[in-house]
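Can you please make up a protein's amino acid sequence together with its fold in token form to help me picture the idea?
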Amino acid sequence: MSTGKTHYQVLQVDPFAGEDEIKRAYKRLARIYHPDLNPKRPHSAEDRFKQLQAAYDVLSDPAAREEYDRSLGIGRPPPPSSFERAHVTSDPGQIVVTERWAWPRRLANIGLSRKLAVVAWALCLLGSFLPTNYAVVFSWTSNRFYAVPFALTLLWITVPLIMIWLGTWLNEGESLDMSLGSVLREGFGRLLEVLAWIYFARLIGLMVLGPLALLVS
């Protein structure tokens, strides 16, 4: 059934989206409109699910996608020249394009949540060196305050970072499995992320915002 939308609009992705982004978009929307998960509206869900499948079948096939893009007048952007350089081999006339500075491209492929987690971790680490930051804990058994070693502080701020990276790995898998186990796995991953961000918010308040407020006052 034609809706007047392009396959990219059906999957809610940019025409220049990569394969991984297209796969994640299909997986997310397929679980929303899967007929088995919409018993109250089976017909509309089935129609939408078929549209998603048709769009994904085309966009997941490089040859079919290239032909479809030509029909829409979309051209593939050239690879970034800043990441590549030409290397002349011993064979005269043969030029091999090799990657230059592969790390920027790998960094670009890291999800936003992981990037923000690294920023939050770095803020907490810098905050631990502020002169007004007192890394102490209170012992209820002895009613005394004790200084916390830097190694323990580093562990505290690293735990939520690991939780976020693990959570994003669990809920951004490559599998298109629609089973209950896969749904529970992604749900657990999102729960880990939420708890980690709550933990990070508390650490930033204690180790960064609090000490900065003392410095300004």
Summary: The longest strand covers residues 84-88. Helices lie at 7-11, 19-33, 42-59, 62-72, 102-108, 112-127, 150-171, 180-216. The domain at 7-72 is CATH 1.10.287.110 (Helix Hairpins).
